[in-house]
Amino acid sequence: MGYEGMIENGLIAVVKRDCPTCVLVSPVLAELERRTDLQVYSQDDPAFPEDMTAVVDDTGLDVSYALDIEIVPTLIRVRDGEEVARSFGWDRTAWQEISGLTGLGPGLPDLRPGCGALNQKPGRLRALKVRHGDAGIASRQIEPGEEEDLIETCYERGWTDGLPVVPPTAERLVAMLEGTARAPDELLGKMPPGLGACTVEKVAINAVMAGCLPEYMPVVLTAIEAVLDEDFALHGVLATTRFVSPVLIVNGPITRRIGMNARGNALGQGNRANATIGRAVQLAIRNIGGGHPGGVDRATLGNPGKYTYCFPEDEDGSAWTPLTVDRGLAAGADAVTVFPGYGLQGIIDERARTADELAETFATCLRALDNINKFPAPDAVVVVGPEHERTFTADGWDKARLHAELLERLTVPADTVMPGCNGIREGAPAALAGGSICKFRPEGLMIVRAGGEAGKFSGIIGGFAPGGAPHAIAVTKEVRP
Description:
This protein is an alpha+beta fold. The protein contains 15 helices and 20 strands. A hairpin with a 4-residue loop joins strand 10 and strand 11 (about 195-200).
């Protein structure tokens, strides 16, 4: 228990002026000082209590931290440098037992609760943990120069995605780790392409830089686990000259708890959770795995989703089953689906009044994915806007019906999409001549609902892997704390 300069035998009291109970018991403390050995530590004002002959300044809160003070006033009995008794708040009986004195505070009530100790305030406690080496941080800490601009330092060290990042101080890291129950040293896997050890702590550092709040951490960690899944084939997604990027689709009540936006501009800017969760994953891939543009990242064009690409499905506003159910999870599950996708291709149809008409528009837009002869095509996600969903549901179509109708309309005679057809060298495999072929494998065409209430618009996120490829496909993981 010992702290330099602390009394070895006697009483210790910890108080603060900004506490009515501490003010109330200040005459009792003065009496204890006269009648026994007492050392008083003041958390906020070394001149309080005024009627004491000596008060130790603990405005730095180091003694309070060492003593693990939770409530002030706290009275502690020390014997041979070890604590043998403690009481917090004002409790006449307890104070008399600890001090061995009677008749304390005759004009005071018998009991009075205390106030929260300053060393327990979250920001102060994190700083104290860091200062005393109790933060449990394994990552190498860099001490910046006195006049060094931390944001510029992040640029100089290659930690950014081209935009400014939040400097990952130790205190910010401790705060971020409070957002998860997982141990900081838990290994999530090896991050491609450099196969850096991807721990919870390292992900948290990148979440800090991305601008996340601690409550986003379960979603960020789940997304990281999903992109590290062998089926997602992150190395291939990074190394390809195609310009795909991890797309995060979040489902479940957690989207509401952390304030994600599934409605107007859901795939755009403006929502902190959407933007920073996706960015944290991208920064982790860059900083832990070494996935730098011009290095392993060989994308011909790139796409804005390489900054961030994250949105939730609008389960509350939809009449359809959510993606989680389509992917085999229970309704209401918190989950993240990652998909290797391009930017958004619009589906514009403001005149269709029947489900059949609108499905034809969807099918023709999907037919153009990659190119009209590309059969089979990579997987795809169809993001259905609310007005289009209402057109389908008005005719009694649920998501399963729309899915089946699209696959049927996208199944064509293979001879019509062979190399050379439509003036295009791309085409279906020659072995399929004389038969039929579908643009997508059934499980490779996913449908989600998101977007604002106004506008008869939907969108397509085209995927990376050739149809039927065993890897570089969507992966869904349930969120855990």
